[in-house]
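Input sequence (510 aa), recorded before submission:
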Amino acid sequence: MKKLNWALIAILLLAAGLYFFQLGTPSVWDNDEGQLMGSSLEMVGSGEYLTPHLNSAVYFHKPPLFAWLTALVFKLFGCTEFWGRFWFAAFGIMGVYLTYLFARELYNERAGLLSALIVSTSPLYVVLSKMALVDIGLTFFITASLYFFYLGYKDPQNKKWFYFMYLMMSLGTMTKGPLGIIIPGLSIGLFLLVEKKLSLVREMVVARGLMLYLLIASPWFVIETVREGSFFLKVIFGQFLFSIYMSPMQQHPGPIYYYLFVIILGLIPWSGLFVSAVFRRPHLLVLSLFLVMLAVFSTASTKVPGYFLPAFPAMAIITGSFIDRIFKGGNKLEYYLGLIFPVAFLSLAVWGVSITSIPAEYARAAVYLETLMLIALAGFFLAFLFSFIKIQPAWTVGGWAAAIIVFFIGLIGWLLPYAEDFKYTRDLSIGLNGMERVCYYKTWLPPSLVFYLNRQKYPTVTREIFDERALNGFLNQPASACYTSQDEEKKIKTRHKIILSKAGFTVIKR
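Predicted structure, token format:
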């Protein structure tokens, strides 16, 4: 009987605790969470699972794999925030386990455990495992593609590993489009080129593998092209793939060095050690993935932290293998420099928050955040001191992990509930409950409001109205209400009364 790996079980339970803790408590975040949950709910309500819809309009923001998965749990267990985020927390945990397997295959058991711990406690990975954003799914499938490639690379006669690689690429494509094959394909190509082993391509069953890939990934794209024609192609490929390189989408610009800050903040407290590790000859395959991600997304005009998440398991493996070498008696200087970094960075962050002039409505949040950062800083500093008293990396690794866990428990249980004061769609939807007709006037329509309205009564189609005369006619109809901003409501001369207001928005009726 195989002995249980209690260290791995502890790490996976830690990840599960972090990712599922109060998973369903926050209301839906806009935009992407609302879009995915809203389109999944409309699949359940309408019975149309092939073509996604949002507010009863065709919606092609992303391929539908995770909308299908979310619709499944909505159908089985109800359309709640918890089940809307369930698959993303689950894939986050599976990604931690996959990181362990990959690092163990590349290095050894201890490197695998360290890598799993690092990725499971990295702030960006934790946050995106608690939100209904498909980046965590894409991260899993890209990492799995490279893992199965490496197994085939080590044993090229066993073709099943390459077939699994193509399967993961196809599922990645059904998650976020061609990036599911482009990113792992470029990473594998760079690895083979530098290793001077391009001849391995002949062993990778490319023709049959691509047939498998197309068999899984292409039917939905073909069907929607036939159904919707050039509109579908323009949206799915033009607007949401190539356009991110041409101009910033949805007001997400950033300089070419944007993702360096994502690495520092998203990987803290491990980012200082990662910087040391990346220059210490890490395994070329994970380094290739990191470099491809950095090149592909740094040159894009649209910059979003979540775009870089697929690099995080590779970064965790690079860092975990570096700490493993320290365990074996490696150079301690770079290790201590890495330990200093989170202490210095958080000290500066706490000082920055303390001297910043915060608007009164956010003052309490600033106090909460500063308190949590001080707690994390104390944990990092104590771990740094213990590394001198007892020179074993285990003290630092354990201390950092404990500090980041306490920080996130405080953030989730203390700060996020306060953020609900500034989110309004769940509360305003109550004011619209029972209405036969709903419109929005001279403002935007949050996808989360579409989700909450359809959860109360499906279908609730919210139409846009631009002028007051049309608004007057709309409100004259029975069981009609309008959603607008409080600023616009003050300008409305048509007779109306306010049903409910929150965070700068309001619901009115005749």
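Checked by second reader. Residues 321 and 499 are 59 Å apart (CA to CA).
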